[in-house]
Amino acid sequence: MDIQLLTHVEKQSIGERQPLPDRYLRLSDDEMDERIVAAKGTLGERLVILGHHYQRDEVIKFADFTGDSLKLARAAASRGAAEFIVFCGVHFMAESADILRGPHQKVALPDLAAGCSMADMAEEDQLEICWRELAELGVDVNATVPVTYINSSAAIKAFCGKHGGVVCTSTNAAGVMSWAWQKGERLVMLPDQHLGRNTGYKLGVPLNRMAVWDPHEIGGGLTAEQTRNSTLLLWKGHCSVHTRFTGQQIDAFRAKHPDGKVIAHPECTFDVVQAADLSGSTEFIIETLRKSPKGSVWAVATEIHLVNRLMHELAPDRTVVTLDPFGCLCSTMFRVSPNHLLWVLEGLVEGTIHNQIIVPEETKRWSRVALDRMLEIR
User: What is the CATH number of domain 119-239?
Assistant: First the structure.
């Protein structure tokens, strides 16, 4: 994938998603860099910028912290002196930061068009209908625990908090799901079916005790028997990036690099994770490759910006390639541009906060319950 070409095309339509003032269009890279650095310097400790691993290089270089969504939200909360948290990620991440922030802090997202298709696959009313229909199918909902991936809206997290449920990340999904099975006989895992299936299987749950709940079908598209037989109900959602990786790509890599290793994110499909040598979160992938022997060759099944950074960081001692030869881009993360970051930062310098993310207090309270449950699990 030609990232430079994509960046060039994106610059031509920079103001079409979220309109920017004309003075923030058609700026040179050097001018934007200089002005972003100047705004950061002016704001000093009043500002913290967070950059997700999948963020583009020309934005993440300005981040004070880099990491996955939860790590970044917690990092922001630890910066007590910061008044402003600018999250260079997607909408649900900024919501998480607003849930965990201090009372004096405010959160901004540089481009409100930076959403997450997976998070959008689970809506609060759909989950409420699911709970009602499960009861109608003869399922004891009081013994059913909702577990939501952190890649979900604050409203979904709040539902889980109200119903004895919990949040998980790709790092701690196994521990969280094990905790949830101690609380109830059945889990509803949302919104990513693949993280749920891969983690459940690793914990010893057979595939025939899992079923996919389709929120667009009456009764989830399941019979009462299928529902009651399942100890793990998987919400029909997925990551548009990680489901692009295939077993055929793994075969092609192994044919070219017989001694190479494949490492996949658990949002990939079951077949890909089973065929890979290792699987784990972005933090796991980074740590594994950094600690791998010199001379090793890796194909990585995750977003292209992270893969490219690892490729350059670890060269020439290690060879790192993307499993998909065309590269898998998180197009919504890509929407956060230096232009939008500059606009937000200079607004803060001028006393204006653009694109503030505010989670309603009731939603925030119950979301925090679900997040705190996760943080207490060891």
Answer: 3.40.50
CB atoms within 10 A of CB 297: 17
Map residue 92 onto helix, strand or coil: helix
Q: pLDDT tens string for the chain (378 positions)?
A: 555 544 554 555 555 566 899 999 999 999 999 999 999 999 999 999 999 998 999 999 999 999 887 788 778 778 888 999 999 999 999 999 999 899 999 999 999 999 999 999 999 999 999 999 999 999 999 999 999 999 999 999 999 999 999 999 999 999 999 999 999 999 999 999 999 999 999 999 999 999 999 999 999 999 999 999 999 999 999 999 999 999 999 999 999 999 999 999 999 999 999 999 999 999 999 999 999 999 999 999 999 999 999 999 999 999 999 999 888 888 888 899 999 999 999 999 999 999 999 999 999 999 999 999 998 887
Question: Which CATH topology does 3-115+333-359 take?
Answer: Rossmann fold (3.40.50)
Peptide bond preceding 316 in cis form (omega within 30 of 0): yes
Long-range contacts of 160-165 (CB under 8 A, 24+ apart): 160/370, 161/365, 161/366, 161/367, 161/368, 161/369, 161/370, 161/371, 161/373, 162/366, 162/369, 163/131, 165/370, 165/373
Give the number of other Cβ atoms within 10 Å of residue 207's Cβ: 11
* Ranges of CATH 3.40.50.10800 domains, the chain: 3-115+333-359, 242-322
Instruction: Select the CATH number that applies to the domain covering 242-322 from these four: 3.40.50.450, 3.40.50.10800, 3.20.20.120, 3.50.40.10.
Output: 3.40.50.10800
Where do we find the tokens 């997925």?
238
Question: SS3 sequence, 141-204?
Answer: HHHEEEEEECCCCHHHHHHHHHCCCEEECCCCHHHHHHHHHHHCCEEEEECCHHHHHHHHHHCC
Return d(Cα 275, Cα 283) in angstroms, integer. Answer: 20
Q: Buried (b) or exposed (e) across 347-377, using 16+ Cβ within 10 A?
A: bbbeeeebbebebeeebbebbbbbbebbeee
